[in-house]
């Protein structure tokens, strides 16, 4: 673009010395088409998002599934249900780009790119929604000479940008951009699906200018169906779009033979996208290193695809739903940094006044997400609320547009628009320190400190998935850190497929306990196939299996258990504190164990996951102090108590300073309750 006076940039100030149209409220080229301005603003928002996502990006493995997902992606494995085949394939391609980064850094970068690309599409969707779908009389984006009109700028472009910024820097959206997770790609695909579906609906109703773009209505429908199929192969919560989509489709297209025939015609395009799910049985048959669910046949594929193992947590109780609903509303205001959320109430009200059908569509999107999510009894529920947050951002954008539209004076209107746009940057300031993971190394440190807590060739019994098991996959398989250590997830032993994975990694372990494994699997398969089963028999053989792993390897390998492992599974053995774990011994004598120099440092970021790990570090010092005190090693016990106190002060559990409780601690220690046997 040639920046002559006719293309000068305009500021909010009326003192611009260049020839200017003073009804434009922000700095943009005067002679610019709506399409160019749309792409320009979308790119600016996307670039701003990417910049802040990179500044706050996690430098290593994060909590929960990050270690497992990164390992699955890099090795082309099978992830936990529902499998996420599209994410796996796209991630594998990205992981093998020649980027000079550590593997986990490259995976986290991918998340940031997906979320920033999502902002590009959300702006385009919001722009179309505000200019076409939400008003009785669509707002022309250009004037007679093809340039952006002042009305479109203040009532469509700026509110759409405000809504996109509000969404992109909300706490949960921003968090998805900071480390590897399937929701980053999910957010991008949902934006694509919303954009294409609403374009198709508007074209069908004659509301849009799609005829001028050279795209026929059918192109939107087929594009929507294909991307919808792809979205399902990334995350099955795509189905939460269904209530809103079905309502809008049949109210717009009616229950006519043609509308039904159109749905049938869209099936091949949908199946073309959905066919990515064929990756699961094809790859599972090759027995990759990580092969969750082993979905090699139709039965196991359906179990994996439908998330059968998670059904016990869905619609489990009204108490759980009430708790999750309370959590949603308690976290809603801080999610969007409080003040900007007020726009949403104005937006939904105005939408019901302008276009009731579209208002109901958005309400169904919101409720479909909320009612499903609150009935899912898991602790990491935030990401399941994303569609509800997207809907709130739509309403907020509509509210901003309504406020600007209510101002009749053009000079005041553009100032109001500028203030509204600036207010939607508030979440950047408020949420930056909350989401910032640029120094979050505690998960890597904890995993490596756990490895340092055990002797060579150790067997570790644990079910610390969120902190250790998932991350151990990445460090052992991808970075070759302590591959000698056998990590057994006690909870995954309740799934028959897990023994095939253990067989591939540790064949000697399975062969030594073959009899106990076969006896246990005979009962477990009854449970998995919904046949009559004896719960007591399953639990008895499960207990025998774990004891078999200990007994048959005790003489050749050191055996460890992490603190949360129930005492019944290690009965007959004393638990001796060894760093972050307990080493199992067949006697009650004093044993000197590993005293690792922890890499752990108290992080500045605080949340329930950080607090959980810090607590485990603190407990490791306390447990060691108690053990030393039991054997009369009081001086060493005091030193461990001081160390524990420093860790626990971070959690606000203890207020004393090191040294102030020495005179009482030796009488206090014997009264503390801890199970060693």
Task: Give a brief rundown of this model.
Helices cover 58% and strands 3% of the residues.
Walk me through this protein's architecture.
The chain has helices at 34-55, 66-75, 85-95, 103-133, 150-168, 171-176, 182-205, 217-234, 242-253, 257-274, 279-284, 298-305, 318-335, 342-354, 356-373, 386-405, 410-423, 426-435, 442-452, 465-478, 497-505, 507-512, 514-528, 535-551, 608-630, 634-649, 662-668, and strands at residues 459-462, 486-489, 559-561, 574-578, 581-585. The protein has 3 domains: 1-32, no CATH class; 33-135 and 152-435, no CATH class; 455-463 and 482-588, no CATH class. It has 27 helices and 5 strands. With 677 residues, it is mainly α. The longest helix has 31 residues, at 103-133. It is 58% helix and 3% strand. The chain has a 5-stranded mixed β-sheet with strand order 2-1-3-5-4. β1, α20 (465-478) and β2 (486-489) form a beta-alpha-beta unit.
The strand order across the widest sheet is 2-1-3-5-4
Instruction: Let me know the average pLDDT.
Output: 88
Number of helical regions: 27
Calculate Rg over CA atoms: 29 Å
Total strand count, please?
A: 5
The proportion of residues forming helix, as a percent range, comes to 55-70%
Shape: globular
Fraction of residues in β-strands = under 5%
Query: Strand count, sense and closure of the main sheet?
Result: 5 strands, mixed
Q: Name the poorly predicted regions.
A: 1-30, 210-214, 650-677
What distance separates the N and C termini? 77 Å
Number of domains: 3
Structure class: mainly alpha
